[in-house]
Amino acid sequence: MISFINIKNFAVVEETSLDLSSGFNVLTGETGAGKSIIIDALSLFMKKKIQPHLFRDIDKKLIIEVMFNIEDEEIILRREATKAKSVSFLNGNMTPFVKVSELMTTLLNIYGQNEHIFLLNTKNHILLLDKFCNNSKILKDIEQIYDRLREKIKKSQELKKSKDMQNEKTDYIKFQLNELEELKMEKGDDDNLRQESKILSSAEEIISNSNTIIEEFYQGENSIYGKIAQNLDSLKYLTMYPEMKPFNDEVNRFYNLLPELSETLTNLSGNIEYNETALNIIETKLLKLKQLEDKYKTDLNGLIEKKDTLKLELTNLNDIDFFIKNIDKEIENIFLEYKQLNLKIREKRQINAKKLSKIIEVELSKLEMKNAIFEVQFDEQEPNLENISQKGTDNIEFYFTSNLGQEVAKIKNVASGGELSRLMLVLKSIIDDTKNMTYIFDEIDTGIGGKTAEFVGNKLKSISKNNQVICISHLPQIAAFADKHFLIKKEFKENNTFSYTEELSEESRIREIGRLMAGSNLDESILKAAKTLIENTKGNN
Questions:
Q1: Can you give the pTM of this predicted structure?
Q2: Half-sphere exposure of 507 (CA within 13 A, CB side)
Q3: 297 in the Ramachandran plot: left (φ > 0), alpha (ψ -120 to 50) or beta?
Q4: Which domain holds residue 423?
Q5: pLDDT (tens digit, 9 = 90+) per residue, 75-94?
Q6: Are residues 99 and 192 in the same domain?
Q7: 71 three-state secondary structure
Q8: Domain count of the chain?
């Protein structure tokens, strides 16, 4: 809902602002005062280009600022323009016009001006009809079937595209698979090969070091083993001291370990032989592994997983005809469900469309449109996989005439601004499940008066219980229902015209209602009648 509007340097407005009610707001003023300026200003959020004639002073900045209150959130939209460029803002941050415009259209609906009329967009006709039909459940079912169908169709298209490229893709997969299988390595083989390479390339050093250790530790004339053997009895003797016993045990353990160490080193060095051929084979294999790891950007484990994936992909490619056949059968079955739901919602819409037409014609007759005819016309489209949608396949459009003897035609071709406003008023009163929206009605009181005007005021007031309503009017019967009443004034100063808005107090409001009733010749009886009219509308709320 709009809580505040500020306008600068726009048309005949130098600067004006409105602090709006969340309920029913009415704007009145004398003929030519510029009552539609507020709508024209808000419409700039739906028009990217701002024409030069809309600047009051072409050398100054034009500013339109609107604050919305959505539950606990404040949203501020702003447009600034100079003769050179225009800029849009959302909550103080520069924002692309398209985003600001899209947001504005979700928060605001204007009826009666050609800038932005909900009913002129035929896509909204099916939305209104479905609300009247209470089609939310079946629409949800259709949407779910539609999503499943689109998913399967996409998968089928991907498979068929894969089939078209099957030979080329199969050859490429086989090439990749072949080079991975030629590696002939399993998990952990890379570490083993690197260890073997290290041993083979260091064979001479390993044998030399092993022989040295065997000689010095065990077999040599002056080996450690021999020296310990000569002193074991002496060490044992010293175990009379308790603190020496652990040392005796450790020396004995080491003494017994030396023959095992010698035997192990003898076996190891005996099995090692420098083999250039074997080393070359290992190095070649490790080089091939490195090349494949770099190519596929992974390690040996990743290469093994890649190989398994390629095998599965190759199997799938070989079985692609089978998969295509299966998924096309699924599409056929889901499409049958879609067609059944499409027929069901079509029948429900057609039955309720006749009821809606009758109700609307009755309501329009109360608005002094006794000859109005309203029809919902169907362009039945049998479903195919190209025309399916989440709302079914039929095209629905509202047709209308207000003149006796005239054929109905598309609303967008024949309805005037005032007729569109009244049509929308009737539709909103019949099909209204929205909350916290802002609706602006202009020209809604064209050609009506008396009880009809009171009927319109009552309906606008009813809509304003859940949504904000802004109405431009010249009828006292409508203005009397307002929660807030604004007067659009025009003044002439120094050969210039100035328009501005003024929120009316209770006393000022009575005088303005009186002016709407009897013109400028106000007397006590007129003011009393105006006050009574306002009080009576409060009784109707």
A1: 0.64
A2: 0
A3: left
A4: 2-113+408-540
A5: 999 999 998 899 999 999 99
A6: no
A7: coil
A8: 2
